[in-house]
Design brief:
alpha/beta; Rossmann fold; three-stranded parallel beta sheet; two-stranded antiparallel sheet; 9 helices; 48% helix; 17% strand; globular
């Protein structure tokens, strides 16, 4: 079966007519599986950045050297939601110094770090902030073809899930806009203790 991420990206890049072909291919495979195992539960697993969202929910989107929208890392830092970085100065320290340094060592260090910069902050406060940004900014940048595939699969009884290498506190804030439970979203997450974020990374880490 064509991977959902690849299929959706293909559909998003071309005419909307491709949506029907992608959906038909997936559902044909579902039918083959159910013919052998009738009680099988069909599921589709999607990447988020660049597959559902044009751009990156953590890093934002630039086209032709111009920023189309800021990512949630920049937005949350400038909003004062990180105790590690604060305001414009903190954002530049993260963007230009700390994150590039860690990324040069390895994604295994840098990518989980994006979820660790909120230690001690109430998880719900971050989610509320991110949900508002999803509604006002990010959902406008969802690929129409990806959403058409998503809705068609859900209607046909296929459960859609998101697996992302962005912080889970970001990506699960898109669940309402996608019409699914936050439990259908898996991303890089840290343990939450007493409702507050920690730096303890939950394994396995979904990257690469």
């Amino acid at each position: 079966m064509m991977g959902i991420a690849a299929a959706a990206a293909f559909a998003a890049a071309g005419p909307e007519a491709h949506v029907d072909g992608v959906v038909a291919e997936v559902l044909a495979n579902v039918a083959k599986i159910k013919a052998v195992k009738p009680d099988a539960k069909p599921m589709a697993f999607w990447d988020f950045d660049g597959t559902i969202l044009k751009g990156d929910i953590t890093e934002g989107l630039e086209e032709d050297g111009r920023q189309k929208f800021a990512g949630l890392m920049e937005e949350t830092i400038k909003a004062g939601l990180s105790p590690v970085y604060s305001g414009e100065k903190g954002w530049l320290q993260y963007r230009d110094v700390d994150y590039p340094r860690m990324n040069a060592i390895g994604r295994w260090l840098a990518w989980p770090y994006n979820a660790q910069v909120y230690e001690g902050v109430e998880e719900r406060a971050i989610v509320r902030f991110c949900e508002a940004k999803v509604e006002s900014v990010y959902r406008k940048w969802y690929f129409a073809s990806s959403m058409a595939i998503w809705r068609a699969l859900e209607k046909a009884g296929v459960e859609n899930y998101v697996v992302s290498a962005s912080p889970e506190v970001y990506v699960k804030s898109t669940a309402k806009s996608l019409g699914v439970s936050p439990s259908r979203v898996r991303a890089i997450r840290v343990e939450v203790e007493g409702g507050r974020m920690t730096t303890k990374v939950v394994h396995p880490v979904p990257y690469g």
